[in-house]
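Sanity check

After download, print the first record. It should look like this:
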Amino acid sequence: MQDINRVVLIGRLTRDPELRKTQNGTSVCSFTLAVNRRQNQDGTQDADFINCVAWNKLADNIQLYQKKGNQLGIEGRINTRSYDNQQGQKVYVTEVIAESVQFLTPRNDFNKQNTLGVTNTYGTQSYAQNQSHGTQAKNYSQSNVQYAQSLTQQAEVDALEIASDDLPF
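Expected structure tokens:
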């Protein structure tokens, strides 16, 4: 039996994505998504704040075209890593490694021009990262357009309004 580690999220960026470069020049982008939970019985809605990471060209595109408050659809996998902090304590970090990202905020809602020109009829943009080869793939297939449409429809149903005062950082 094969294990499955697959994550699909729709949420809003809690801050502008942060792009860094590794020592060998590889791009890595860190960002946090606020993702709605189901509505509570009292009518209030809670959110989870999920740390995400993207690599290579996907990281560059997220940093170039996204900003705080924009809505993203993420497909990826959960990764847990550890490191020793300055006090010598082991710190564990769990994050989502993004392998595919759909930009769900309508194109006219963000100011930067899309130089790649990858759009579909629903106003979303799709970029996928092939992790095993480190290459950028553009998703043009009809199934991806339908998937992006379903993400957009779900996002409209589950829209999360986040005030900067509500963020934990």
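If your output differs, re-run the checksum step. Summary of this record's structure: Strands lie at 7-13, 18-21, 27-36, 47-55, 71-84, 90-103, 125-130, 135-138.
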